[in-house]
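Table S2 (continued). Query chain:
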Amino acid sequence: MTDSPNAAGRAWALFFAREVLGLIFFMAGVYKVFDLGPLGHARKYFLPYADTFLPLWSLWATGVVVPFVELIGGALLMLGWRIREALVALGCVLVLVTFGHLLKEPLYPFHEHVIPRLALLLFVLVFPRDDDAFSVDGLLRWRRRSR
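Corresponding output:
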């Protein structure tokens, strides 16, 4: 990051967007893993789709995995470590959620749940990595360049 005011503004913008998005997913993951439980999450949110063309095994598998992806992806975003990988994983969750909701309810108001998360995710994803100075990834990049 250069010392220009624009670079500092971009770094802060990325930090705040990444932290808010990370908290949203992390806290959802905490609830789904530790309170509801992965099997409870699958039963409550995925098994209602058993009357669709989706195989039951796929509902169980995704229903159990999604809470961990949210928990780990959210934590990685908050730390700013492996940001790109976390964003891709969480983006896949958003695509999956959108598909599922629209499968059951073709006019599902996904602007309430999906769009705000997607907007933050895309914001962080499209900025150059070097602009995200307040992250573990940024610190590691800085250390590699300093050698």
